[in-house]
What we know:
This protein has helices at 2-9, 19-41, 45-50, 52-70, 82-93, 97-108, 114-155. It is mostly helical.
Amino acid sequence: MAGAVVGLLDKDSRAHPNFRVKLEAIGYGFLIPVFFVTSGLRLDLSGLLENPSALGRVPIFVLALLVVRGLPAMLFGRQFDRRSVAAAGLLQATSLPFIVTATQIGVLTGLMSAVTAAALVCAGLLSVMLFPAAALALLRAQRADQLQRGKQRQTR
Length: 156
């Protein structure tokens, strides 16, 4: 809401040319990190580790992220090669800010338990750590194959 109000009031950024830059610096440099640090402090990791069923939900949530957010990349399977599509799917499935925000709201409103929120956040953390690395590995392998094919063509 605040962003919409600022956008309406500051349509002409010539009056305050550095306003948006300063606002983004405060938001991304201070407010957002503070939100994630305080969210991390509220993460019920001990409850997650003590509850085997909740801990078992973490891989299920990771898989759900892959299916729900990554599977739509397969729609581009005819236009791009498999590795590029798989890498795009992995990158699309990477999610943490939305999960942290949604789970905080769910816990605060009483619609979600802290343990379930912790499992979802851990799944989001895993997606942020694993999916981009896997996508990069796929793209590197693709690049290596392309270079190898190019060398084979040159030797013919």
